[in-house]
C-alpha cells in the first residue's frame, strides 16, 4: 500500500507543524518558549503535530501567540480544534 502525501492542511497538527516551520522553530525551541507558560515539552509538541495530543484552549492561545499566527491562522486553528474535539 502506497503512503499518501499530505498536500493540504486539514488537521490541527498539520497547521501547527506548518506554522512552526514557517517561523523557523524546532520543536525544542517551541517547547522552550512554552514550557514555563503552559507546561508543553518537546515530546508533547511532537504528539500534537502527529494528532496524538489536543491542546486546551489556553494552551492553544499560547501556541498561536508563540507562532505569531495571523488572524486567519487563528481562525483556522480554532476551527480545526473544534472539529477534532467533535470526533
Largest sheet: none
Given as residue ranges, the uncertain stretches (5+ residues, pLDDT < 50) are 1-8
Secondary-structure element order, as H and E? HHHHH
What class, by secondary structure content?
A: mainly alpha
Q: Count up the helices.
A: 5
Please characterize this protein's 3D structure.
With 87 residues, the protein is mainly α. The protein has one domain (12-86): 434 Repressor (Amino-terminal Domain), CATH 1.10.260. It is built from 5 helices and no strands. The protein starts with 11 loop residues before the first helix and ends with a helix.
In short:
The protein is mainly alpha-helical.
Provide the descriptors you would attach to this structure in a database record.
434 Repressor (Amino-terminal Domain); mainly alpha; globular; disordered N terminus; 87 residues
Question: How are the elements arranged and paired?
Answer:
Elements: H1 12-22, H2 27-38, H3 42-49, H4 57-66, H5 71-86
Helix pairs in contact: 2-3, 2-4
Amino acid at each position: 500500500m502506497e503512503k499518501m502525501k499530505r498536500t493540504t492542511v486539514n488537521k490541527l497538527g498539520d497547521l501547527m507543524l506548518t506554522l512552526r516551520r514557517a517561523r523557523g522553530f524546532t520543536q525544542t525551541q517551541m517547547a522552550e518558549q512554552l514550557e514555563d507558560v503552559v507546561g508543553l515539552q518537546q515530546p508533547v509538541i511532537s504528539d500534537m503535530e502527529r494528532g496524538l495530543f489536543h491542546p486546551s484552549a489556553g494552551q492553544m492561545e499560547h501556541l498561536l501567540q508563540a507562532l505569531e499566527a495571523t488572524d486567519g491562522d487563528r481562525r483556522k486553528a480554532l476551527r480545526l480544534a473544534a472539529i477534532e474535539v467533535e470526533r
